[in-house]
Amino acid sequence: MFAAEYEPAETTGRRRSPRAPVSFDVRVGDGGLRRTLCKIVDISIDGARMQTHSALRVGSSIWLTLPLAGTLSADVMWADDFTAGCRFNKPLRPDIFKQLLVL
Fold it and tell me: Of 22, 38, 55, 97, which has fewest CB within 10 angstroms of its CB?
């Protein structure tokens, strides 16, 4: 027989801030000539998850044109086929974030 004591690890999660479900179309570009539409499906002050029409590469920098917020830069943190998560290089203003939740 064997006995051991342990303490569970505290988990804080990988998210900097909570995400909220949304559904609105935005333009995404790579800083060059390539631009396409995508749909934001959840968003936080620090980032978003999107469905795209073309695959994005992890580690790439993109430009998103969001309603109310304008064009902002983001880094692709993960990607799986035509879904990707990005982290904004500058957090959204809280008032803009709240307005995006009701679009």
Answer: 55
Give the CATH number, domain containing residue 31: 2.40.10.220
Q: What angle do CA 57, 43, 90 make, to 5 degrees?
A: 75
pTM of the model: 0.79
* Number of domain units in the chain: 1
Sign of CA dihedral 66, 69, 73, 76: negative
Q: Which helix (H) or strand (E) holds 100?
A: helix 94-100
User: How far, in Å, CA of 37 to CA of 74, rounded?
Assistant: 15
Q: What is the pLDDT of residues 84-100, one digit of tens each?
A: 999 999 999 999 999 99
The answer to whether position 13 is within a domain reads no
Tokens found for residue 10: 């505290």
